[in-house]
Amino acid sequence: MNRRNKPPIKHAGRLKDRFGAVCIAIACIPLLFIGCAILTIIAGGVTHLSEAVSSAEVLFSLQMSVATSTISTALCLLIALPTAYAFTRTNMPCKRAAETLMQLTMSLPYIVLGFALLLMFSSPAGKALKDIGFAVVFQPVGIVFAQLIVNLPFSIRMMLTAFKDVNPRMEFIAKTLGASSFQTFRTVLLPLCRNTIISTFVLTWARGIGEFGATLMLVGVTRMRTETLPGSVYLSISTGNTDTAMATAMIMLVVSAATLVISNVLTKPIGAARVSNRKRPRKDD
């Protein structure tokens, strides 16, 4: 067909605007859904927040959650960084099978992972560990293991993605200048993945704070012993104390919001604030 005879496309901009309007309308659905859930927590918990903060049981669960999540997050990063390096920068055998195993773990329900840990530490080998003083089942240390098995595949996955996105040319140049593999890892790869490492730490820590399914299977929820913040919510609802449950949920919401703010501040590009605060040149200049 001749170009002159081709009918002109009419109202293309209007159709584009209609599509954008439909997308905005659809985007409002999850915003409304999530916003209503958060407002429900705030409305139900803010009135009893002072009582929850002064409660010894809630404070114990907060300290337990913070302590166990910090330990498990540190362990996750210590394991995830070399694991991701082995998967992306070495000739490790069966790498594809190992990555598939990690993805399989991420897709399993947390309660199944906790049940697997319960069977492991209830086996003869687990009982032998208990006999030498390393008890895990129904003990606070079990919370760390529960958070570890839930968050470790997530941390490895995030670091894998970060390492794969880094151009290996810079590492190759560093090695041609005489740097060892560890020096290249420390001085080239880690600085380039700084923001991802910080995000992984913060998100893993926040996931540890909210972990419940695997913890419930491995250590249960015992008041003032293995009670975390989600466990405190569970116990409060089980006993009909809805006000305390909502106030505890409000504390978790505040912790999550603070975690998000810290993550955004730490992962902000170093020169961004400097550039934004710099006075823009005038057109006359």
TrEMBL record:
Residues 62-263 form the ABC transmembrane type-1 domain. The keyword Ribonucleoprotein does not apply. CDD domains: TM_PBP2. One of its GO terms (molecular function) is ABC-type sulfate transporter activity. It is a multi-pass membrane protein. It is found in: Cell membrane; Membrane. It holds the Pfam family BPD_transp_1. The chain crosses the membrane at residues 21-46, 66-87, 108-126, 132-154, 204-224, 244-266. Keywords: Membrane, Sulfate transport, Transmembrane, Transmembrane helix, Transport. Belongs to the binding-protein-dependent transport system permease family. The complex is composed of two ATP-binding proteins (CysA), two transmembrane proteins (CysT and CysW) and a solute-binding protein (CysP). Part of the ABC transporter complex CysAWTP (TC 3.A.1.6.1) involved in sulfate/thiosulfate import. Probably responsible for the translocation of the substrate across the membrane. PANTHER family: SULFATE TRANSPORT SYSTEM PERMEASE PROTEIN, SULFATE TRANSPORT SYSTEM PERMEASE PROTEIN CYST. This is Molybdate transport system permease protein.
